[in-house]
Amino acid sequence: MSHIPANRFKKTLHGKSISIYTLNNNNGVSLQVTNYGARIVSLYVPDRNGVPQDIVLGYDCIEDYLKTKNSYFGATVGRFANRIANSQFTLNNKIYTLNANDTTHCLHGGAGGFHNVVWDAHQISDTALELTYVSPDGEEGFPGTLSVKVIYSIGDNSEVSITYFATTDKTTVVNLTHHSYFNLQDAGKTSIEDHQLEIDASNYTPVNRSLIPRGPIETVSDTPFDFRIATKIGKRIDQPNEQLKIGSGYDHNYVLYGKDLRKAATVKEPISGRVMEIVTTEPCIQFYSGNLIHSDILGKNKTLYGNRHGFCLETQGFPDSPNQSDFPSTILTPEDTYRSTTIYTFTTVP
């Protein structure tokens, strides 16, 4: 196991210190987080032979993250994950205009979203880290001063938990997620198309050509989007399907079963034997098959990443929900506290 040296993440930005923090459990799981973007920069998990290997894409030093500000590798995403159409929404009869960073749309909170700010960090213990950030009223166009807390922790059963809290002084919209690119075999050296994916969802939200949900949810039955039974990611990814063409592969939101903390997805990697199960309190999960990873990105350990060398499974509220009344609300009022939990549990199969 080779951790990223701490001195590679020593930097001051806008008067705030950037650092890297390491969490470990007794089962060989080790997590490194930087307070720049509250992002995971490495995640070591043992394979079926007990050998730990990094399983997330990213960079070796803070300078590379700063140079690629549109990179979401490992980041905490907010204020609003996914897209808000035309960078605009109406709340309490007032129109709010956001900063557009995806043609005319606002993606993942805008260019100055939570992935590009320095959080305050407090290492609670060897297995837990707390990060906080106060987003001022009007940041990226969103209303209200939003106080956010994210806690990363590792449990004895090789589970990595991410818990979010947020409060506001003015009614606003909030939708937070985690944006690691996973490759359970080798952290991005090879394709993820042989990973076996199961998503616990019967419905998904088709999108228009701008990747904005185009209307009502639809069934996954008899489509390439049916992952209710574990299926290789690459098995149907190149089928002549309109939705796959729009996303250049999978980049779609799935509607999960049940309420409270529930199973969202399971991924198995046959060569290493690693298995990742995701449970969440969120109503949806976005599956992105890494279709637009540029082939010239030089990642950790001088790894040249390529198209579909990593996948994302982003637990979230419904995309563009501030503009789509049929979707559940993502509104947060001063009287309420936003709470969200997602847990990644790692095991192996023979």
Structure commentary:
The chain is mostly beta strands. The protein has one domain: Beta-galactosidase, Chain A, domain 5, CATH 2.70.98. Helix content is 3%, strand content 38%. It has helices at residues 62-67, 242-247; strands at 11-13, 16-18, 20-24, 30-34, 39-46, 52-54, 75-77, 83-84, 88-91, 94-97, 106-107, 120-125, 128-135, 146-154, 159-168, 172-173, 177-179, 196-199, 203-205, 218-219, 231-232, 251-255, 262-268, 274-280, 284-288, 312-316, 331-332, 338-348. The strands form eight sheets. A nine-stranded antiparallel beta sheet has the order 12-13-14-15-28-24-23-18-21, with no helix packed on it. A five-stranded antiparallel beta sheet has the order 20-19-22-25-26, with no helix packed on it. A four-stranded antiparallel beta sheet has the order 3-4-5-6, with no helix packed on it. A hairpin with a 4-residue loop joins strand 14 (146-154) and strand 15 (159-168). It is globular, with a radius of gyration of 19 Å. The mean pLDDT is 96.
